[in-house]
Amino acid sequence: MKKNFCFSVLVVFACSSAVAQSIFDNPITGTNPNLSNPYTTGQTVNGNITASGIGRGSGIVGSNTNNRYNAVQWSTAAIDGNDYFEFTITPNPGIRVSFTSFVYTGQASANGPMNFAFRSSLDGYVTDIGSPAGAGTTIDLSAAVYQNISAAISFRFYGWAAITAAGTFSINDFTFNGVTGVLPITVEYFSGSKKNDSHILSWKVNCTNSSKAILYLERSADGNDFKNISSITADALRCLQPFEYADDAPLPGYNYYRLKMIDADGKASYSNKVVLQYSRTNLQITRPLPSVVSNTAMLHISAAQKMQVTIVVTDLSGRELQRKIYGLVTGDNLQQFDVSKFAAGVYRINVYSAKERVQTIQFIKQ
């Protein structure tokens, strides 16, 4: 049943312009723009995206001033995760965005914030982007991480170290520059199901006609580190047909799957993720041991029939510390093993039957 497809997909990336241009901007004019959260009046948005306007976090409060988006209550100490202005850009279905810069002017009062940070939702607002200033500047967004964005992305402008909570800071105008274009392959659906001991992945894609692209099926054990398990291909005439792939050797536990599309110029886009849990029916760990143990570790195992299992305890480097063979009865089994002489630390338990490794779990010896 397993199908390993390997062929080229005819596609095109139709860019709205080869030169970066404004895709979302607002000169912010009018009486007390802060009364709207977010403020969208007067903004210009590229037709391939939707934009939230400029909004503010729950830690700051709007302050009346004309022709700028103004706020007070900025942190007087360290950066506060709720004190920010925010912009969200969402590509339309089948569209991707490549950013080049964020340009703005700002204005801080004498008692307003003195430190600033510009961050994005791509890493949970952890990494600073560029060097923002209170009076305004240009923030470079040409890094690879801000290219070929096909899902909603938010940017936040943080301020802190205000002299007093009454100090103000405003964004007076702003522009996001970049280009938008059509994805060479768009995913109509990507889904998964179980059949016996296999995971069945099903999808249908739509593509346009021109240069070449490649489609990959990827799998991960944690939803972050993905590895290719098959190259999937089709010619343009078959591109609209449904496809199916049987993963006959899933990973123990949870399996995360996604489609990765690479177009002719090497740019990547991704499908939604599909999550399936794998466990064989003849042998299952029904209740893992406590995550923290002192002297005795216990394991609850359900067996469909009488059988022997081997339980191997290792450290995190894979060094074997203990190996025991247990005879299981049909139904529930409780197995115990002594770890009282183990040094404090993290260890792994690997459970094997005659034909399979059932599961690997971790515990902490205190």
Question: What's the arrangement of secondary structure elements?
Answer:
Layout: E1 9-10, E2 21-26, E3 44-45, E4 49-56, E5 61-62, E6 69-72, E7 84-91, E8 95-108, E9 115-120, E10 136-140, E11 153-160, E12 169-182, E13 185-195, E14 198-207, E15 212-220, E16 227-232, E17 243-247, E18 253-262, E19 268-270, E20 274-278, E21 283-287, E22 292-293, E23 296-303, E24 307-315, E25 320-328, E26 331-338, E27 345-352, E28 357-365
Parallel strand pairs: 22-28
Antiparallel strand pairs: 1-15, 2-3, 2-12, 4-7, 5-6, 6-12, 7-11, 8-10, 8-12, 9-11, 13-14, 14-17, 15-16, 15-18, 18-19, 18-20, 21-23, 23-26, 24-25, 24-27, 27-28
Structural overview:
With 366 residues, this protein is mainly beta. The chain is 0% helix and 54% strand. The chain has strands at 9-10, 21-26, 44-45, 49-56, 61-62, 69-72, 84-91, 95-108, 115-120, 136-140, 153-160, 169-182, 185-195, 198-207, 212-220, 227-232, 243-247, 253-262, 268-270, 274-278, 283-287, 292-293, 296-303, 307-315, 320-328, 331-338, 345-352, 357-365. Strands 2, 3, 5, 6, 8, 10 and 12 form a seven-stranded antiparallel beta sheet that branches. Strands 1, 15, 16, 18, 19 and 20 form a six-stranded antiparallel beta sheet that branches.
